[in-house]
What does this fold into?
Amino acid sequence: MKNSGQTVQVIHHPAGSLRRRLWKQRWLLLMVLPGILWFILFKYATYAGLALSFTNYGFRKTVSFVGLRNFERLFRSASFLNAFRNTLLISLYNIVFYFPFPILIALLINELRSLRARRTVQFLIYIPYFFSWVVVGTVFVNLLSPSSGIVNQILRSLGMESIYFMSDVRWFRKVLILSYIWKQMGYGAVIYVATLSTVDPQLYEAAEIDGCGRFRQVLYITLPTIKPTIITMLLLNLSHVLMIFDQVMVMYNASVYSVSDVLQTFSYREGILTGNLGFGMAVSLFVGIVSLLLVLGTNWVSKHFLDDSIL
Amino acid sequence: MMTAKRANAIRESNARKAFRICNVIFLTLVCVIVVIPIWNVLITSLAADKDVMGGVYLLIPRSLTFKSYARVLNSGYMRGFWNSLFIAGVGTVLAMVITTPMGFALAQKQLVARNFFMKAISLTLVFDAGIIPLYVLIRMLGLIDNRWALILPFMLSTFNLIIVKNFMMSIPTSFVESAWLDGCNDLMALIRIVIPMAVPILSAVTLFYFVSFWNRYTEAVMFINNSSKYTLQVMLRALIYQSDGSLGEGNIVYDNTKMAVMVLGMLPVMLIYPFVQRYFVTGLMLGGVKE
Amino acid sequence: MKRILSLILTLSMLLSCVLLAEAEAPAKLSICSPDNTFGLSTDPELQQAVVNMLNEACNVDLEAVIPPIGSYNDKLETMMAGGDVPDVFSISQAMTRLPNYVTREQCLDLTELIAKSEKLSALDQSYFQALAIDGKIYAIPYYYPRVKCLFLRKDVMEKYDIQLSETPTTAEFITEMSKLKGTGVIPFSFPKWIDNFQYFLNSFGAYAGIYQNADGVYVDGMQEPQMVDGLNYLRELYTSGVMDQEFITTENATMREYVYTGKAASDIDYVANYSNYISQSAAAEAATDVQPIYMLVGPDGKGGGLNESIQTAWCISSDCKDVDAAMRVIEALVTDPAVHAGFYNTGVEGAHYTIENGVAVATEKATNSGYSIKYNYITDSFIPDFSSLPYQPDEKMKAALELQRSIIDKGMELRGPKQMIPAGKSDLYDENSASITNYWKEVISQIVLGSVTVEEGLANYKNFWNSVDGDTILAELNR
It folds into this structure.
């Protein structure tokens, strides 16, 4: 249901307009107040910690200002550049391969006639979200085992050789994405399913009467309805896709470090494990800035090409 | 109703039928792929000790016993459960009470300093200082080892806030305006008109909040010192990971116990889900088959 | 006058009461140790029973923080960063972390306190020295250095006529174990943790990582010539089919279970876990005895068991207010039979176990949290005599423990080298050591799996070494 274009006329008063507006909107401001306080306390106050990225906090007992040394070290470090490359690649895979999945699933579920079928499918695909990554890791190790895994059994019956996916640098990132899809798609679909249920069925009826086939109905009614949701979710995903950590930490092993070491595992190893917390903060700050650029960039693109600004 | 149904049946083309069949096959395949590992977890949790040793992957049940579940339930599960329930319940309620009105307010284009607020809020999406500054903050607030340390810092999520706000923006202002004309102030407009329209999204967001409170682990370990205040996730993980990977060993814990722990850990959320789902997986009201 | 006198008298009586009370009041301390201590049960009530026992034994009032072992280091780091260091804490992965904590001035220098303590100075001081930094002792160990050896199922040995002594040569190991090819039994199961390969590298005099050679010079083990021979042998182990082809995705627990069930013939494990193999293989209905292989003798006669030295020890925070009380607690944990056994293994009578006929039997409450009676402390700890305890292991267990004791001793005799690199000497080293370790683990695993050849792998390593300025690191360490 798009905004039908009606806007509220704000009448400007020449004098005391701010105070007038504040009084007029007192309820709105009250609604916003607790949240703003929360943001100041639990978000912005902790950002003071990011200032530590300019110090050598944690490395020795005394904290001293080191200026940009942490950042210099960051950009000179081959491990960092490798981690950055891996993070970008894995994030790209995530956006290209994972992102459309929940949308597709939600649309397909919507096409099912029986309500019970819809609810069942939705429920089933939603369960893997609750498996911790450790369990998902074990599941995929078993699934992909060269000797006893189902996937390789199928490959062998087709005449191909077994592939040791979990230790193959060509396959490991794909395993990461596939396991991510398996685990998250049900949960991701929830928001789209919820949005789809707000579509006015009368629109479909009207289109049906006008002779529109189902496919055109989806194209002209369903998709435009969820377009804002899609863009919102895209931006939200972009904002934290670079912070991937738990999944990699649990699923990787020594033979694939080079392709799966990501920024957060790098930061954990060279920051927290060595007590070099200032350096760890520098990585967090860097990740934040890159994510910000990604989000702003995408927001700009969506504003100019898709007519929708989310932030 | 009857005529509409018959009319639909007449109009259904072969292409559409084919599509529907393909759709069903595809979704069934997806469900099977998803269910096999779930089935495996279930079977393993019900197996006897000697049947799960040695990394055996069970698809056909070899033995059926509830011993693993009994073990877990008797090892302090209930205490962790109530701790988690308190935190998740109170947290979700607080979160929805703060998020919904705030999302509504931010959706109103005339809000004073709206742009500033949106920019300040969006920044928090990308920047994360990590757990140590949060630990220091909690410590300064004197909340270490206190349940509220697991509620307060999480009773708002920028992600969910933006989802709610964007949905509310898609509600035509004519609804809110007509409420004003009726003499409602913004608060009553929110409660009487907007919330009922936003039920699907709000129920989805409620689910998101509840799940994130329920699953929270790292902060629970860092902020809580007293073992009897552990949430369920911490307690369960402590039970099954009694060794630290490459070093150290504790008790030997078999796979069946690990799986039982997993199932019991997610059971509460699984049970809530169908109730919440009712609000956002709806059938077509008119036309089409409704069961 | 009289009134003033009586007032003064009353006040001074009150004052002395207060002072006396303070002197007798148990000292308040905070203690932090992972949840595989405090009685081997994760149940909070049972853990509290152990805390109470400690309180009584040492006249202290302990606030115990007992994080899950999987997150122990993270929690300790967070507490330290937040300024909340516990007075008495257990350090894990001591070889890599202790130098780090010491440079961050989190640990108290305990050298003099140990000398003052009768009980602690009576122990073999060479174990304390293993954790010494610059001659000062910052951590107090409580068990013998851990050594790993290979365990081989005797029933498989008999069935397939595998002739291996307790110290065979590297060539013999491959030849004999290859007899299991095609039998469906995995000859040698191995975990994903690459540091275990050091067992085999010991046979070639090679050492992965930076170490101080016999001349006292710091060198990089990966670039020493004998490493090439070691790596070639590891690759041969894999190509010959002796090593589990899927080792890189195998957890420790899974590896052990393979041997318990007979799916694998051998694995690598702590010498002190010998008794587990007897009991667990019986539980898996595949009972057997196992033969330890303490070391493989390389072509030059070198070799040694995998020495993991001492990884867990007790430290006192440099901010601790009551050091004497802290030392009392540590002394009790390390030298007192009842306290040690209760804390590290059996727990408290009535809560964790009951005594029937002089043997300890686990309570139901304890069993539910995974607890079982273990007697490791008899062979692991520095305490020679546990006969004062009201419960003793039964005859069968005693015999197994005697055997285990001799295995542990032999393992100690034949152990390989292990070194701790001091922190604070080279900033560059401190910053990069974690990444260097990560990288050689990656290179070795890729070489073994065959994704790269030995030459390619070492060339990649050299590139990496140069990118982190490795030669400067060595120069700084050698200053």
Chain B has one domain: 75-280. Chain B is about 70% helix and 0% strand.
